[in-house]
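Researcher: Go.
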Amino acid sequence: MAKPTGFLEYTRALSPDRPPLERIKDWKEFHTAFSAEKQQVQAARCMDCGTPFCHSGLLIGGAASGCPINNLIPEWNELVYRGLWEEAAKRLLKTNNFPEFTGRVCPAPCEGSCTLGLIDPAVSIKADECEIIDYAFEQGWIKPQPPETRTGKKVAVIGSGPSGLACAAQLNYAGHSVTVFERADRPGGLLMYGIPNMKLDKQRVLRRVKLMEDEGVTFKTGVEVGKDLDAQSLLADFDAVVLCTGATKPRDLSAEGREGAEGIHFAVDFLHANTKSLLDSELKDGSYISAKDKHVIVIGGGDTGTDCVATSIRHGCKSIVQFEIMPKPSADRTAGNPWPEWPKIFRTDYGQEEAAAVFGGDPRTYGVMTTKVETDDAGHIRALDTVQVEWKKDAKSGRFSPVPVSGSEKTWQADLVLIAMGFLGPEQALLDDLGIERTARSNVNASEADYATNIPGIFAAGDARRGQSLVVWGIHEGRAAAAACDHYLTNQ
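Model: Structure:
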């Protein structure tokens, strides 16, 4: 534990984000950091709770409770409190390959199950983690650690998102020769092109990739396996293959007039093009979907929807509205959502803060379902028709479903619509080429017991196996699949 009475003496505090009206003028990270001394005070709040649920990594109520990669949170909080920062970094890196990513983009299920959170605001675990790794990089403690010996085995990892990077790093540490194939022009997958720069600076991703290259991992970008490279050839050239392709098939909008309407884009395409143009030319090449001077509607209330809101505001949109089909969450935990479950409560993220600062109010509207897409004579989007819905339980199935509320119809002006309704699973062409079995939800059929597919020597991890999930789950899956693959290659 850290300071025995720390949780009684200190209140939770987070370093302030940059003011909304300031940060929307650029694409730099909006987070700021405390000094090491202030973060030590926050680490002191980690109490002697006996059974620390924060690193349990359980699935309760359909969501993560505690850290999925089992970060040893009380241990490194104590080391931070005592000023032993290098030891804290070593302890953190034992379980987390990329704390500089999770410390910025993870929703922190660890904090949702923090024992102190039963009576007071939870320990600032996410901020502590971020400060540990940032401080370690600043001090020069993070250096390449290539394996001392090589096994002579070669492994191909397809996809360089969180699971692919974690898998490649672990297999490389085990001494195998790892080649990562990425179809985009830069490695990082979701970390590079799915998350905007203001939430995760891409130089941090490239810094980690460079570190892995110095440790012996080979990255081949601009190579789409199954298209640019024959998928079957991998089985001949490598001793094992790990599929970390993600769940990149977006869920589409089902509404009258959707098909063929111009001005409607998937969020993943909107965010990818923006970040690529930003990195290539600081948006000077114009090779992105611009929201400037447009009435923008974002359909979807999750993190990706928030990122679309924030990106649109930086473009200079004329207005921004965000649809959420679910009802507005309560401000506090309900009786059906007890600790240590992930708290399903109302939150305001950075994109909504920025929208409120620019337009005077939260852009979200709840319990809304789109019923029709209206276009002009040229086929371009001009409005969306919606209806309010109530969620009611079906008497036979017991499932809740949205029921339209009579008289609640409304028309919303729109020049640009961004669909951020989640993903349905991995793209199927590569899986067809390899003869990989799928689940009923079209994910790769590989169990958590061994992460093995029906084809010997081919494993799967991350969203391609489990479906759309968090970055931290991707890291968990990549590490676990690497262990299974290593066992397959070495039988130990």
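Model: The domain at 6-138 is CATH 1.10.1060.10 (Fumarate Reductase Iron-sulfur Protein; Chain B, domain 2).
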